[in-house]
Amino acid sequence: MFCTMQRYFSKEPPKKEDKKEPPPPKPKMKRFKIYRFNPEGNQNVKKHYMQEYTVNLNECGPMVLDALEKIKSEHDCTLTFRRSCREGICGSCGMNINGVNSLACITKIKTKGKTKIYPLPHMYVIKDLVVDFTRFLDQHRRIRPYLIKNEDKFDEGQEYFLQSIKDREKLDGHIECILCACCSTSCPEYWWHGHSNPPKDFLGPAALLNAYRYIIDSRDSGTASRLDQLRNYYSVYRCHQINNCTNCCPKKLKPGKAIAHLRLFLAGLKKKPKPEMGGTIKSDPEKGVRGNDCTTKKSKC
Fold first, then answer.
1. What's a GO biological-process term for it (predicted)?
2. How many CB atoms lie within 10 A of CB 254?
């Protein structure tokens, strides 16, 4: 018995086979050709030119914005571009990628070929991929992007304007606009007349989409004044329905369709229906307070 146990415990444990580590993946090198512009550059250096960078896609995220971030952090810190949310919500990273206006944060990198990146076309370039949005935002301001009410007596900020579910559903496909300017800068008519002196300038798909959004809103009372503002040769009728705006919209909206409906309103072939629900209701400030807020009397901490 003792000998048997001695033989058993004297046995050497089986040797573990050394697992071979998998070989590192082969680098996937991708070339990016990016537009560069520096208004404060030296006289001996070109102010605008195309610069090429090579990025290993194995060490980079899947989106174009990931590649731009890697280039800026590891290759060239002078590369300038806008970005914020990285989720296609803020509209900051709009640019022209391989000939198509899109958001860099939701555009996947194509593994084959070379990727060319330019700023949004026919916009004044501030530096590299950053363009001037002054005129674009001014045109958006001119369509009055807010509710207009004829009633003089209502407590601003203290009441809600009532709207039925059906009337609210009519706004879907219009309120999602994030003002990235991809649609307007893809429109040939906006290239030609978008930068003319107002009011002889084409407002562009983005501004007209938002104008239509407020015209069809059942809570808005300024339909007549909004349409009168658009009754000129340039504001709406310069659109030729090429629909570049619809094809490149990162939110899958249809500005071309909205412009067509605006023409029907202006021609009197379409009228705004009466709202299913009207009036106002007092807002309850306690509903906007978190339940764990110790500053309120009813909260339980």
1. tricarboxylic acid cycle
2. 18
Give the mean pLDDT of 234-246. Answer: 93
Q: In Å, what is the CA distance from 32 to each residue of 25, 58, 97, 98, 260? A: 21, 15, 10, 10, 39
Supply 206's token pair: 């983005």
Q: Give the whole-angstrom CA distance, residue 114 versus residue 109.
A: 10
| pLDDT tens sequence across 244-301 | 999 999 999 999 999 999 999 999 999 999 999 988 888 776 664 444 444 444 444 3
The b-or-e profile of 134-165 (16+ CB within 10 A means b, else e) is ebbeebbebbbeeeeeeeeeeeeeeeebebee
How many beta carbons lie within 10 A of that of residue 103, not counting itself?
A: 27
Domain at 134-266, CATH from 1.10.1060.10, 1.10.10.10, 1.10.287.1770, 1.10.260.40: 1.10.1060.10
Helix (H, G, I), strand (E, B) or coil at 219: coil
